[in-house]
Amino acid sequence: MIDQIKIGKFIAEKRKEKQLTQMEIANMLNITDRAVSKWERGLSLPDSGIMLQLCTILGITVNELLTGSEIYADNDKETAANIIVEMKKKEEEANRYLLHLEWIICIISLISFLIILFTASYLVAGINTILAAVLTVFAFGIFAFGIYHALKIERNAGYYECKCCHYRYIPNIGAVIAAPHVGRTRYMKCPSCGERSWQKKVLSK
Question: Are residues 77 and 150 in the same domain?
């Protein structure tokens, strides 16, 4: 298991060994000192985009950072493999949560759409046609807003796998919206082999 508290203490320990302040680390990474403070308190982990740079500054390896301790050569490979497995599990859990959230957004959007449309059609139309028209436009706007954000979540949660070459990638939002689909399986062009196929959603790379 990745222990954020242990990692945070290790970051703080290595930072102090280098005689650096949280602000100095933050300036080197172009982030805020609050972010560094959160790492050291175990509230969050460094983003993957700055992890290598942070390791260089602290004089440690990525494996050491993610285990929160120094690693020696004889167990380095085993530790690295365990870290990769753990990170893959965490990625899958996070993506599974996002895909559940997508369904919740879709359901809420649909219910809101139907309630507002029903109100516009049956309760308001006979009294005020302008208000009915406004409510109808608002209902479609709510529905479109919800579906768009649900599709963004689906796009960002995991990857699509090409049926032809098995390349896994994240397409742009336009391709996701335009693609014919059955559930979360979409007919799209693979950026690796260039072939079009029905591509399934997978949770990790």
Answer: yes
